[in-house]
Amino acid sequence: MRSYLAVWRIPGAPVLLIVGTVARVGIGMISLSLLLLVHGMTGDWSRAALASASYAIAGAVLSPVWGRLADRFGPTRILLISGIAHPIALVSLVFSPVTSPVTLIYAAAALAGATYPPLTAAIRGAWTSLTRGDSGVRKAALAAEASVFELVFVAGPLLVSFFVALANPAVALGFSAFATLAGTLVTALSPAIRAQRPHPSAEPTSGLGPLRVPGFPSLLACCAGLGAAFGAATVAIPAYSNEIGVDNPSTLAGILIAVWSLGSALGGVWFGTRVVRSALSRQFAWLLGAVAVSLLILPAMPGPITLGIALALGGATIAPALTVENALVGRLSPGTMLNESYTWMVTMSVSASAFGSAIAGLIVDQVGVGAGFGFAGLAAAFAAGVAAMPSGAIARAEATVAAAA
Fold this sequence. Notes:
Elements: H1 2-8, H2 13-23, H3 30-42, H4 45-73, H5 75-94, H6 102-114, H7 119-130, H8 135-166, H9 169-188, H10 191-194, H11 216-243, H12 249-271, H13 280-296, H14 304-315, H15 318-332, H16 338-366, H17 369-388, H18 393-404
Helix pairs in contact: 1-8, 2-8, 2-9, 3-4, 3-9, 4-5, 4-6, 4-16, 5-6, 5-9, 7-8, 7-16, 8-9, 8-12, 8-15, 11-12, 11-16, 11-17, 12-14, 12-15, 13-14, 13-15, 13-17, 16-17
């Protein structure tokens, strides 16, 4: 626990861990709130799904641009601009009249997604910068970040359910807008974020940026496999709950996903206290392999209780894998493009998760729930295979950086 105490004593650390998590609660709220809001406005689930997709796609496309701007002009300035623009876009969507043309609803949703502030990239970049030279504290910081970030996906849907029961989805979106605005402004002005220096000489926005960094494309491929696995699992779990015929399948699905996320959070806290001597690329491969195995065994679980136990134990491998993934981003990426590198990882994760969800939906409908879990496990196994190559791009790039250091 000494490493966590060292993390807590870093100037600005409480803001990054607490306020930074509150600021990002919208990540776990907006898609569901938007889906319910637009369905209430149009009475059509397909239009609601398209609005939610418009939000996600616009955010995925614009996220690396925000990250690159944060590298060039400093994350504080970019967080302040986007942190104000995003809530305004959300509020405009909330107050759209029911008679609005559906194309305007899609446009408003896309604008809200496009303006979402690059909080995750800025916070992870801050941890990397603040702990440079102390690998033990950096590992603990990134483990703490991965663990508390998991709480966003537990608290977000629960908050949406609370606000919908209390009022309506518009109130949930309004709360998300306020949390993002207040949390982003406080985070942006914290010493930890302001300490990140801008790099005006960084490559212009037309370049490929981190995609040309040795090892980074392979790391991005691992991120894609892991994201697809998560997306597929979040479809297979509700499908399982519906298939076994319980009275409240949505409640069971929510509990199973919450248990999975909670296991990840606890696993991340434990992993942050461990001292592992092997190379990060090797750790990454083993952890991704563990995630794959934890998903591939799920079809063999005989009931919801054993499935919940398997998800909790398997979830304990997720945050450690994400911790090492984030450490590799900081290890391989130059300081002049650190924010952009992290936004590329976020973009790939979100996009791959959406892809994995879509494919898993088709597989579950055509083959069954077990095959959906199997697809999730194979996606994680693909990521493990890329990371495990002893002469692969990630291992070579890490060795080059280590030799230079």
